[in-house]
Amino acid sequence: MAGLPGPDAVADYRQHTRRPVGRLIGMTDIEFIAIDPDRLARMREHGADEHGNPWTPRTAEGWEPLRCCLRVAGPDEAIALITYSPWTAPDPWLEAGPVFVHFERCDGYPTPGDYPEAFRRSRSMINPFDHAGARAYQHITFVEPDDDHAAAVRRVLDAPEVSHVHVRSATAGCFTFEVRPVT
Ligand SMILES: [Zn+2]
Predict the structure, then answer these.
(1) Within the chain, which residues score under 70 in pLDDT?
(2) Euclidean distance between CA atoms 155 and 122, whole angstroms
(3) In the chain, which residue ranges form alpha helices assigned H by DSSP?
(4) What is the CA(124)–ligand 1 centre distance, in A?
(5) 69 C-alpha vs ligand 1 centroid, how far in Å?
């Protein structure tokens, strides 16, 4: 059978070191990561986000997805709209875009082992990256509101060549949260 690509064969322009498939063995071995609260604290102290936008309060209407604690804002909560990038160093794959966060420091995401409930019923893109930081195009996955989002993320992360994923809105494109295997 030599020469026939397997079902998870990768594009031949990039060869990966193959490791055993199925590195995820339980339900508590991945973590759903909100924006680093200390990073947000530095922006609040500075009075601006990392892209120079003033840290300005706005009143939530009650639908805004908050990336500091991975829930939807309630009506009249004080929030801020900032430009955020999950990357912290120069990188050709870097993307930055608008996200809502609490205006004041919040308690963060309390259950990092669980898929954030507020984002389960959404059209989402699971955007995977390999161990060199490049987008793992062959594992890009879109999920619909009725799909099992947690299972889809787990399936993508189970690929040995995938290091971590960013979950994005498939309708607006905005970054929602990161998911990584627990190390
Ligand atoms: Zn928050």
Answers:
(1) 1-28
(2) 18
(3) 37-46, 149-157
(4) 20
(5) 4
